[in-house]
Amino acid sequence: MSRVTQPLLLAALALTLLAGGIAAWAGWSWYGTAHDDTAGYAAARDDALEAGEQAVQNLNTLDHSKLEPGLDLWESSTTGDLHSQLVKGRAAFAKQVQSAKTVSTAKVLSGAVTELDERAGRARVMVALRVTVRASGQKATDKDSRMLGELTRTDGHWKLSALGQASVGSTATTD
After folding, report:
1. What is the pTM of this model?
2. pLDDT of residue 4
3. Rg of the chain taking only CA atoms, in angstroms
4. pLDDT given for residue 33 in this prediction
């Protein structure tokens, strides 16, 4: 072999080994990313948050002139005991809203998933919202509130199974 071809052969061998090493590293990185649960967990968290915010907004929005579709939306946003309570009290609540002629609209200000158990299909959310209530012939009033909701995954979709007010600060005093 001539002295010129030997360095070229060594350079080609080194480049081949380097390319093989880069290919192996890239393949390992791709495999690790493709099988990382972090992305799946983040997607599940985002799905639960979006569903939770929408359901809380749905349950705080109701127009007396469009009562039946509004109450249908409430029921389709819920499951479990909360759903049963809404169905059971629907007629009495509808009568109350119609006599007061109220319109309430909610706007989500922010939200967060506080717990997520993807395997069990359960999540908890905290949602801050502004509810505007207008009674017939009266000025609209705004109220900001924080709601805590429990979500249950049913048929691949998150629905509210419990909803309540979040406490705001401490009421205890010290002397």
Report:
1. 0.76
2. 58
3. 28
4. 72
| 17 phi/psi in degrees, rounded to 5 | -65, -40
The confidence score (pLDDT) of residue 6 equals: 83
Describe the crossing of helices 90-100 and 67-76 by its angle, rounded to 10 degrees: 140
Higher pLDDT, 47 or 4: 47
- Evaluate whether 169 touches 157 at the Cβ level (below 8 Å): no
What tokens appear for 74 in the block? 């409430």
CA distance 20 to 50: 44
What torsion, rounded to 10 degrees, do the Cα atoms 65, 68, 74, 78 define? Answer: 180
Predicted pLDDT of residue 148? 97
Residue type at position 139: K
Three-state secondary structure readout of the chain: CCCCHHHHHHHHHHHHHHHHHHHHHHHHHHHHHHCCHHHHHHHHHHHHHHHHHHHHHHHCCEEHHHHHHHHHHHHHCECHHHHHHHHHCHHHHHHHHHHHCEEEEEEEEEEEEEEEECCCCEEEEEEEEEEEEEECCCCCEEEEEEEEEEEEEECCEEEEEEEEECCCCCCCCCC
Q: Which residues contact 75 (CB under 8 A, 6 or more apart)?
A: 83, 86, 87, 90
